[in-house]
Amino acid sequence: MIALNSPVKPNLKKLNKLLEQVNDNGWYTNFGPMHKELTARLEDYLGVKNLLLTNNGTSALQVAARAIGSRSILATPFSFVATVSAFKWQKDELAFADIDKRTLNLSPEAVRLAYRKGCKADTLVTTHVYGNPCDVAAFDALSEKNNFQIIYDAAHAFGIKLNDTSVLNYGDASTLSFHATKIFHTVEGGAIVFKDRVAFEKAEESINFGIRTGSGVVGVGINAKLNEYQAAVGLVNLEEIDNILEHRAELFYQYRKGLKDVVELPEWHSESNVNGAYMPILLQNENQMRSVAGKLFENNIQSRHYFEPSLDKIFVDSRNYGTRNSISTSERVLCLPLHAHLTAKEINLVITNMKGIL
Predict the structure, then answer these.
(1) How far apart are CA 112 and CA 289, in angstroms?
(2) Model pTM above 0.90
């Protein structure tokens, strides 16, 4: 079976050395040495400041929202469910605007129309879907005009740059997921990159029960810290990240070249690199998508109907400013196998199967 995904396995020899250090220190969580080192190395590698590690990507979204003062969200309906359920969980107001059917990212024009129709959301939440950057320039302009903040869900965008600048530097906050299925992982984990240092400091207190060092409890908080064992996994995996990103990008381009005349492919940002986080294709309709997925499976090739359904169909009590493109896309999108352990030969086999099926 050609698997859809296969997590990166940390080098156990290197990991055991770090875990021995953790045991020798007797410091297992609460901003320990491994946590500090991983934070510094990620900031350096990604080219960012004010990076805060968290215990997962969902808490990263929730903490980011509270740190910048969000209470009302206008979101993309085409993403993993956590992108919006994180906010519904903490009872924020939620509304949806449509996506661009070419890029699959939230449409700036749809956001513009939502505010013209009376949207009062104080924060825009949008995903760099499949690692493809949003139109950040357009959202910056809309943010100034309509006085809203921006949180970018960058769970798919590790290592992505726009004109050699990390995509994480855009918006008021960008969140990352370090789940085991992601390009870079700490088994479970996440991070937030803040534009503003004050918001970073507030979030740092929030993930530690609202405790400020030297002052005690200064506000309402939760426990969303990354522990030392998971930070050690991150340090080991970070040593291999250049090779992982290069390999996945090569496979991604191989797919795009082989399938460009076979299926519809999302339009990629012209000023961005790629990280090979996912390999999405668009079929003609839902029936064709399900037929292709079934025939691939018969030939021992996994695929996933991802993301579906359009999130406005789950959170039906939310305000909706039109999601036609999202609904259509969610019915016919399919992700093909792509991970660090795949080979060019296996990609060719998938491409050959796709051509034979279609």
Answers:
(1) 32
(2) yes
